[in-house]
Amino acid sequence: MKHNHPSEFRKLVVGVDTPVPLMNGQYVTAINFDNAATTPPLVSVMNRINDFAPFYASIHRGTGYKSNISSYIYEQARKTIASYVNADLDYDTIIYVKNTTEGINKLAYKLNCHNHGSIILSTYMEHHSNDLPWRHHFHVEHIAITSDGKLCLDDLERKLKIHMGKVKLVAVTGASNVTGYKNPIYTIAEIAHKYGAKILVDGAQLLPHCAFDMMPISSTQHIDFFVFSAHKIYAPFGLGVLIGPKALFNLHSPDEVGGGTVKIVTPNQIIFEDPPHREEAGTPNIMGVVALNTALETLAEIGIQHIEEYEKNLTLYALKHLKKIPHLKLYGNTKDCSNRVGIIPFNVSSINHEQLANIVSNEAGIAVRHGCFCAQPYIQKLLNLGPSHIKKHIEHPDEPHPGMIRISFGMYNTYKEIDILIHLLQKIVSRPNEYIKKYEHIVNKTRLK
């Protein structure tokens, strides 16, 4: 198979050798350790976009050749997605959305249309996008986490028993965007189904790094709903995907209405299209569909297992060296790479996370993420922040907020890049005040924006 060795991965990604300026005016090759936020596009994606662009046209109902080609590609891509995650298109529908956030909001609206005192179980480790939409429509309870940040399955089952028959959905991340923990989603599915609940898996951090299977409809491990974003899987063109039963999306009117969602409109009557089209209002993002289809085809050709193994080795290597740096505290699993993706959160005791992120960027062109990663309840738990800490930061919003540094790997990152970060962190912790003073003005300017 072509390009299935790690030495070839870097050639597949756009922009990996882009020079960026440092504080001293020199240029270095950019190092992107912020892949959990978004990934760069694949070369194959950009080539396909350029090849398709001359044939770009509005899809559906057009009779021109370009429109027919665009419509075919748009619909055929649903089959590529279904094959990649083993979705059953006789039972499920594949809905194009802008991103994971929109997909979850759409599902929350749809489930709320026949909500009669139902409860949603989310978790304390969720991205806000898999928490806030549920709070907006439902009574939400959060499944507890253990002291090291893992999901507590005993608490999940306890809450399902307490609310016997009232829990509509268990909404859980496939992999945490903070600690990288991979949740045991098939065990969770079995537990949820045992008590009459369904399961949604937020696959934004899972699908780019690991194999995923929705499992057969007849299985107790079947994943009822799945959602993910293309911009985290090397196709950053504003597309997301929501997968779920057709029957649900045939119920009630869609959350957004307009062009493309209807069969018949009269002054007094509306008959909506069948799913998925009734859920895709407005002019579709055909370029995003082309990009995602190509990315999935490329990852399938590489073999996701090769990517997963390589990223696991990168993470092990980084953990080994980060643990040797004095005054550096790692969060989550610091021992091995079992059941995790390549995400590592940490802090340096003498330097605020915002300061450190600016320093590594301006000293070595290294992009990391800092803050709470849209997962504030999880960060608060991991940092052991009590109500008094939260109150303090509410009352003093301009003060530095608690948070962490996060590095996250993609298939194109290298051991050499990790070495550069490790060497720089060692220098920083050896004389932190020097670096803080040097970049203090940048931190202050950032905070004032």
Structure overview:
The protein has helices at residues 6-9, 43-52, 65-85, 100-112, 132-137, 153-162, 185-194, 246-249, 286-302, 304-322, 353-364, 376-382, 387-395, 415-430, 432-448, and strands at 19-21, 27-29, 31-32, 92-97, 119-123, 139-143, 167-173, 198-202, 225-229, 240-245, 262-265, 270-272, 328-330, 343-348, 366-367, 369-371, 404-408. It is of the alpha/beta class and 449 residues long. Strands 4-10-9-8-7-5-6 form a seven-stranded mixed sheet, sandwiched between helices. A four-stranded antiparallel sheet has the order 13-14-17-16, covered by helices on one side. Helix 2 (43-52) packs across helix 9, helix 3 crosses helix 9 (286-302) and helix 10 packs parallel to helix 14. It is globular, with a radius of gyration of 23 Å. The model has no long low-confidence stretch (mean pLDDT 94).
Q: Descriptors for this entry?
A:
16% strand; 15 helices; 39% helix; 449 residues; four-stranded antiparallel β-sheet; seven-stranded mixed β-sheet
